[in-house]
Amino acid sequence: MTVAWFYLFLAIVFEIVFALGASASKGFTRLWISLVTLVGIVGGIYFISLALRDLDVGVGYTIWTGVGALGTVVFGALIFKEKITTPKLLCFAAIIGGVVGLKSLAGV
C-alpha cells in the first residue's frame, strides 16, 4: 500500500506541473512549455492509474485532484503572483480537512 501512496504523490506532482504548464503555455502557443504540459498530464494519468490499483478510486482520485488543486494555487501564487485571499484560505482548509479525512479512512 505504501507504493500506492508514493505513486499518488508522483501523480499529484505531475498534475501540478500540468496545471501550471497549461497556464504558462498560453493556449499551447509556446512549444517547450506545451511539451512540459503534455508530459505533466501523461505522467499524472500514468501514476494515478498505478496508485488506483491499490487505492479506492474515490479516495485516490479525490486526493489527487484536491492536493493537486492546492499545489496549483500555492505555486500559482509563487510563480504567477496570483492572490491568495481569505476566502481562498478557508476553501483550502476545507480541502485539506477532506484529504486528511480520506487518508485516515483509506484503510477502513
Query: What is the number of E strands?
Result: 0
Q: What's the average pLDDT? A: 93
Query: Which class do the helix and strand fractions yield?
Result: mainly alpha
The run of helices and strands is HHHH
Percent strand equals under 5%
Biggest sheet descriptor: none
Rg measurement, Å: 15 Å
Distance between the amino and carboxyl termini: 13 Å
Helix count, per DSSP? Answer: 4
Counted up, domains total: 1
Membrane topology: Multi-pass membrane protein
Keywords: Cell membrane, Membrane, Transmembrane, Transmembrane helix, Transport
Pfam family, one: Multi_Drug_Res
Protein name: DMT family transporter
Polypeptide structure, described:
With 108 residues, this protein is mostly helical. The protein has one domain (2-105). The chain has helices spanning 2-24, 31-51, 57-80, 86-105. Helix 1 packs antiparallel against helix 2. The chain is flat, with a radius of gyration of 15 Å.
Keywords:
single chain; 108 residues; mainly alpha; 81% helix
Give a short synopsis of this structure.
InterPro entries: EmrE-like, Small_drug/metabolite_transptr, Small_multidrug_res. This protein has 108 residues and is mainly alpha-helical. It has helices spanning 2-24, 31-51, 57-80, 86-105.
